[in-house]
Each structure stands twice: as structure tokens, then as C-alpha cells.
Write a structure and sequence with these properties.
The chain has about 80 residues and is an all-alpha fold. Helices cover about 70% and strands about 0% of the residues. It has six helices and no strands.
Length: about 80
């Protein structure tokens, strides 16, 4: 149901305790498995890019507030 409320990048950002950068760090091996031979996640999404995405995601809303907003919206959707 969260797809009714969030886009894919916001879902990624909210699906790891530390946000988007944490998500890509936690699931790095999975993403490396999708990369063509001889490349890895860092070749496609550099640490600097991940840091910039994380900063952008946190610029307006702290992670805890964004997660609370998502949870409240999901609860309202179920009601």
C-alpha cells in the first residue's frame, strides 16, 4: 500500500534505519549482483552521489518525521 503514498526513491529512503545511503550500504551485495561484469554499485552510484542524495532527502524533513508521516498516512489509508 505504501506505493499509493510514496515514490520509489522515497520508499528506498524510508526503508533503512539510516535513510537512502544506509539502504544502498546494507543491500550493496544485491546491487552489485545487478551490475555488469567488472563493475559494482560504486561505479554506477558513487559514494559522493549517494551522500548528495542522502543530504537532499534530509534537507526538508528529518528521517524520523518522514517515517512518522508515512506511517500515519498508511494507517489512514487502512482505516
Amino acid at each position: 500500500m505504501r506505493w499509493a503514498l510514496l515514490g520509489p526513491l522515497e520508499a528506498v529512503h524510508l526503508n533503512a534505519p539510516g535513510g537512502m545511503d544506509d539502504y544502498f550500504t546494507r543491500y550493496r551485495a544485491t546491487f552489485d549482483g545487478f551490475c555488469p561484469d567488472g563493475t559494482c554499485l560504486d561505479d554506477l552510484l558513487t559514494p559522493q552521489t549517494r551522500a548528495a542524495l542522502q543530504e537532499y532527502c534530509l534537507a526538508e524533513t528529518p528521517l524520523s518525521k518522514a517515517k512518522a508521516r508515512r506511517d500515519d498516512a498508511l494507517a489512514a489509508l487502512r482505516a
